[in-house]
Amino acid sequence: MAFYYANMKASFASHKSHRGFAAAGAIMAVVLPATLFPVPAQELSAVQGGDAVRIVDAADPAHGARVRQLRKDDGHEHNLYHYRDPWNADGSRMVAIWSDLQQKNWQVVLCDGDGRFLKRLFTIAEYDWRLVWDRRDPAILYTWKGADLYRYDVNAGRAERLKSFAPGWLAPAGPSLNQAGDRILAITNDHTLRSFRLPDMREERAFKADVPEGCFVDWGKPRYIGCRNLIALAYRSSDGARQALLVYDDTGRLVRKLDGVGGGGHYDFSPDGKLAYPKMPVVTRRGAPAGPEPALEIRVVNLDGSDDRALFSAPRSKAAYVQNAHVTWPKKVNDWFVVSFFPIAGHLPDAYAPPLDEIMVLRLDGTARYLARTGTAYSRSGPRGSSGDMFWAQPQACPSADGRRICFNSNRSGTIDLHIVYPENLK
Question: What is the largest CA-CA distance in the chain?
Answer without folding.
Answer: 63
